[in-house]
Automatic annotation (TrEMBL):
Lineage, top ranks: Eukaryota, Metazoa, Chordata, Craniata, Vertebrata
UniProt keyword Isomerase, yes or no: yes
Gene: ECI1
Protein name in UniProt: Enoyl-CoA delta isomerase 1, mitochondrial
Family recorded in the similarity comment: Belongs to the enoyl-CoA hydratase/isomerase family.
Organism for this UniProt entry: Echinops telfairi
Pfam annotation, one family: ECH_1
Length: 289
């Protein structure tokens, strides 16, 4: 789908092409939450998250990620894509709590549609995708990493990764769960998802939620080495294999996208859930103080 069509699908509030383009252009002009550096000779792009303070996946950030992904997919010179945080310490703090708290149902629906779109695009990405996890990686950050073909994590015990939704009093949607099961298996997912576990590097490697743990100063070179190994495989064979493996999981969401949006809106709008999110945000503030 063309860039403008994608933007229009993601920005349903906009009534005309002009409005869509004006909104996207305005978002771009305001800031770049995603920085893309391309090494054309190597055929590899690095997408760096730059959404201070903690790279939360706000609606704007998610939209920028989708737009940049589409651009890279259309660039036939790019065969591999590495995700990382521009500032080590936090890879991504996950979905933006402020897009899920104190807003109206139309906003929740718009946000969820954009998050679905990002996952669908990443999970089916024809490029080789590697997550270079150079910081904390909870919830939605973990989801992004798990959509990648390979995960390299920096060996810093302060960094943790996992789907911690239950600890916030919220429930990971079925496609988060499916992605986790595809990554670490069913039994490990039962434990991990119900307890909302966040794993430090050694445990993350043991459970298989990451594939490699390396000293922090080697995390980028290790990701490049992994990328070189994957790029040695002919694209068409690898891409078809990836599509075959992931299609059932993708189809599962595609079949029930609208119902999933409605379920999200009704769940997140509940007073009890809003209260829980409010308390969690307060807890984050107090922790800081
Ligand atoms: C029946 C089935 C129905 C299904 C319906 C679906 C239900 C909903 C599913 C939604 C799924 C959600 C997935 C998510 O991703 S939720 C987000 C989860 N994220 C977290 O729990 C991480 C929280 N953050 C942290 O733990 C830490 O911030 C950090 C990432 C470890 C970094 O620590 P730090 O010390 O460097 O920074 P800190 O001082 O904590 O934070 C700085 C400011 O940033 C704010 N903030 C942190 N995380 C978020 C976030 N995710 N969104 C928005 N804002 C965030 C934090 O509050 C600080 O703000 P301030 O400076 O005090 O104003």
């Amino acid at each position: 789908m063309a860039l403008a069509s994608r933007a229009r699908a993601l920005l349903p509030g906009a009534r005309s092409w002009g409005a869509v383009l004006a909104r996207v252009t305005a978002q771009r002009a305001m800031s770049h939450r995603v920085v893309v550096e391309t090494d054309a000779a190597a055929g590899v792009a690095v997408m760096k998250f730059r959404n201070p303070p903690v790279n939360s996946l706000s609606l704007e950030m998610v939209t920028e990620l989708v737009i940049n992904l589409e651009k890279l997919e259309n660039d036939k010179t790019v065969r591999g894509l590495i995700f990382t945080s521009e500032s080590p310490g936090v890879f991504s703090s996950g979905l933006n709590l402020l897009d899920m708290y104190g807003r109206n149902p139309a906003h929740y629906a718009e946000y969820w549609k954009a998050v679905q779109e990002l996952w669908l695009r990443l999970y089916q990405c024809p490029m080789v995708t590697v997550a270079t996890i150079n910081g904390a990686c909870p919830a939605g950050g973990c989801l992004i990493s798990m959509t990648c073909d390979y995960r390299v994590m920096a060996d810093n015990p302060k960094y943790t990764i996992g789907l911690n939704e239950t600890q916030l009093g919220i429930v990971a949607p079925f496609w988060f769960k499916d992605t986790l099961v595809n990554t670490i298996g069913y039994r490990a997912s039962e434990i991990s998802l119900q307890l909302g576990l966040l794993y430090p590097p050694a445990e993350a490697l043991r459970v298989g939620i990451v594939d490699k743990v390396v000293p922090e100063d080697q995390v980028h070179s290790a990701a490049l080495a992994v990328m070189a190994q994957w790029l040695a495989i002919p694209d068409h064979a690898r891409q078809l294999t990836k599509a075959m493996l992931r299609k059932p999981t993708v189809d599962n969401l595609v079949r029930q996208r609208d119902a999933d949006i409605q379920q999200f809106v009704s769940f997140i709008s509940r007073d009890s859930i809003q209260k829980g999110l409010q308390m969690y945000l307060q807890m984050l503030k107090q922790k800081k103080a």
